[in-house]
Write a structure and sequence with these properties.
mainly alpha; about 260 residues
């Protein structure tokens, strides 16, 4: 369709995005189709853009137009949306995507392997699930190095044990290390305290317990906590408690990071 002068060109993102999506969705309705907008790492969108996106979704809902926004992000994404527009909780349906169960994790490994004529022994699949806890990225990481190291078919639990150090080293640098490097010294101190209190399963931690651990007043730690939340390293699990946004981060901190 020809460009419409005077629409979505004010320079104000909240005005322009609403007009752009509404006009596009109206055209889609006229021709009998729908539009889906997919946004990854949605928690990293600047606040002004989040506000504009929420405003657009609200207007689309009001007019019952065929455009849907699908966002993926870290656990604190609902808080980001709510801080932008108070009505955002009514605009979106939240679905928590967590670890794979054993059957799904096995399928992720077995199906592509079968296409190449390769099989896993049951003990190997058990060892891989124990190492990964079913977290998809870890299944990929451990699956890759095990595949690369296995000298013969079928892949065995021994192959997993031999390959595991390489997977751990890769995650330590590219997954955990890159995140830890983003933290300031004060934030690293906060993360270390979290790690020491979170237990073997990296569960939620009380913010008051962290203050006691560090011998500080809770209010003095608020800047570090808020900055870590904005960086996507931790999130507020519930009022008065926090947790790591990525699996096994606490384990990594207890084993590797000391400063």
């Amino acid at each position: 369709v020809p460009a419409a002068s005077g629409r979505a060109d004010t320079g104000d993102i909240e005005v322009d995005l609403v007009e752009l999506l509404v006009d596009a969705a109206a055209l889609a309705r006229d021709v009998g189709v729908g539009i889906a907008v997919f946004v990854d790492e949605m928690q990293d969108i600047p606040s002004a853009d989040v506000s504009a996106l929420c405003a657009a979704c609200h207007e689309l809902s009001q007019q019952a137009l065929p455009l849907v926004v699908v966002g993926a992000g870290l656990p604190h994404l609902p808080a980001v949306l709510s801080a932008s527009k108070s009505y955002s909780e009514r605009l979106f349906h939240y679905v928590r995507i967590d670890r794979l169960d054993r059957a799904a994790a096995d399928l992720a490994l077995v199906v592509p392997a079968e296409e190449e004529g390769v099989e896993y022994e049951e003990d190997a699949l058990e060892a891989l699930y124990t190492a990964t806890d079913g977290y998809p990225y870890f299944v990929q990481a451990y699956g890759k190095v095990t595949w690369d190291h296995a000298p013969a078919i079928p892949i065995t639990a021994g192959d997993v044990r031999v390959a595991a150090p390489d997977a751990e080293a890769e995650l330590a640098v590219g997954f955990f290390g890159s995140r830890y490097e983003r933290a300031t010294p004060a934030e690293r101190e906060y993360l270390q305290a979290m790690a020491s209190l979170s237990g073997a399963i990296d569960g939620t931690v009380s913010t008051s317990d962290i203050a006691v651990q560090l011998g500080r007043k809770p209010s003095s730690l608020s800047p570090a906590r808020d900055s870590l939340i904005k960086k996507g390293l931790i999130y507020s699990a519930e009022r008065g408690s926090i947790a790591f946004t990525v699996p096994h981060f606490g384990i990594y901190l207890r084993q590797h990071a000391t400063t």
